[in-house]
Structures are given as structure tokens and as C-alpha cells.
Amino acid sequence: MAKRCKTQSQITAILTSQISENPSDPSKIPFRARKIRKLSSKTPIEDETCIDENSPQLKLQNSSSLPETLTEPLPSNCEIELALNQLRTSDPLLATLIDSHRPPHFESDRSPFQALAKSILYQQLAYNAAKSIYTRFISLCGGESSVVPDSVISLSAQQLRLIGVSGRKASYLHDLAEKYKNGTLSDSSILEMDDESLLAKLTLVKGIGVWSVHMFMIFSLQRPDVLPTGDLGVRKGVQRLYGLKELPRPLEMERLCEKWKPYRSFGSWYMWRLMEAKGVLATAIQ
Asked: Which of helix, strand or coil describes residue 159?
């Protein structure tokens, strides 16, 4: 049976209690427990300009697609309202934006390995081209449920080239799979690591940079307190929201968005919506 939302006064009381205990600790966020099913020298890329399947800019090209993750949708409507009330209270400028748009909604059922492999394949490609290659990649593996480290390692660079995967991306996929095989990474460890550890571990994989990790944490893992300081859309949104003359740099982003903790992922989502509304992004983010 669905939970009944609390009254505004009850929500405010709960929110005040939770935030006062530890306002910047994501572990205090009242999200429901995850239901997880068991599944079996870095080369950086320019994260700010690459296109990943989780990128909100890319989502605009395909308004029917949704961000993907291993878990069921984490926040209930009441829990989302708690987060949005906190943002409204902490940032009046953001409050106006929140009241002008629908709440964020993220859900999917891909494992971390599958989501990371797809992220690599979609980088720096137009959506339709990337989707076509990914469809062929799934078929080559024997179905999406068979996109696991062993099957990826078994594919030669030549096999991958025949379906449109570049030699460089083939090496990225193999490096990701090898790090799963040697125990550097696993689906379970990814779900358990804190944000800082996860960033350090995932950027060891060839072809995965900071921007890609931030998108993965927001859209695939649904972590609520991620600020993608290198994302151009979020930076432009912050610039417009606060009337800045220049694009904010990472340290300035951290300072300006400090008030959004522990819900900076939600705040970032509204920056993409702000840029969409101003015509910088073409259609609604899904």
C-alpha cells in the first residue's frame, strides 16, 4: 500500500530535524532501502564536451528515454517533496525554478557494469548512431542480460570494429571488464562506495573521466548529492540563476551550490531545466 504523504507541518518538522543532525551527509537522506539483484594507467577524455547516454543534453535528443540504474526508483513522492522543500528553503532563487517545473524522476534496471559499458559506447556520438552501435553490441554479447565482464572480454577488437566500435573504445570496454575480473571493481562494491572513493576507482578505467562518473552517479545510481562541476549545462544554469558575468569555475560552483546540500543532484537537474526553458536546450529532459 502506498504511503500517505505527511502534512506540510509534519514535513517541515521532519526536514528540520534531519538537516540539523547532519546537513551535508547523504546517509541522512530519507530514501528507501535499495532492492538489488545479484549479477554476475587511465586515458582521460574531455568530459565536458563528450556525449554520454546519461547526459541531459543527449536526453533532449530523445525525450522518450529515461536515465537508467540497477535499483527500483529510490525516492517516493513524499521523499522527493522533502528534498524540494529543503531546496526551496535554502535557496529562494531555486525555489522559483522548482515551482515552475515538474519534479525529477529517474528509474531503470541496468547493472552498474552494463550502465558503464553503455556510457563508454555512447561517448562523443550522436544519439541515433550510438543507439545503433549499442543495439549491435547487445546482440553480439547475446542479449543485454549477457553484457557481463566475461562476454565483453571474449569479444575481439576486430569483432567490435565490425559493429562500429572504434579501436580506442574497444580498449576502454576491455579495460572496464578486466578491472571487474581482477577485483578492482564489482557491481556490489560500486553500490557500497562513497562518492569520493567511487570517483577515484572509476576514473582508473580508461575512457571514464570525472564528468562521466558524475553522470553515472546521478542517473544510474541515483545519488542525491552530486554536483557535476564540469558539466556545461549545469555551469550555464548556475551562471544564469545567479546573474554571473562569466561561467563559474569548479571552486565557485562548489561555493555557490553549497546551500543545496544534501540534494545537489536535484539542484543540478533544475539547472538543465533552466537552460531548456531559455532555449539553450531544445526539449524536455526525461
From this structure: helix
Which amino acid is located at 195 in the chain?
A: D
Measure Cα distances from 110 to 33, 146, 191, 202, 254 in Å: 17, 12, 13, 17, 30
Inter-residue contact 181 to 40 (CB < 8 Å): no
Q: How confident is the model at residue 75 (pLDDT cuts 50, 70, 90)?
A: low
Nearest CA to 194 out of 18, 25, 74 is that of 25
Q: Which CATH architecture has domain 112-220?
A: Orthogonal Bundle (1.10)
> How crowded is the C-beta side of 201, counted as CA atoms within 13 Å?
20
As annotated, the residues of the chain forming the CATH 1.10.1670.40 domain(s) are 77-106+224-281
- A 10 A CB-CB count for 94 gives 23
Residue limits of CATH 1.10.340.30 in the chain = 112-220
pLDDT tens for 217-259 read: 999 999 999 999 999 999 999 999 999 999 999 999 999 999 9
Q: Can you spell out the DSSP letters for 197-245?
A: HHHHHHTTSTT--HHHHHHIIIIIS--SS---TT-HHHHHHHHHHTT-S
According to CATH, the topology of domain 77-106+224-281 is Endonuclease Iii, domain 2 (1.10.1670)
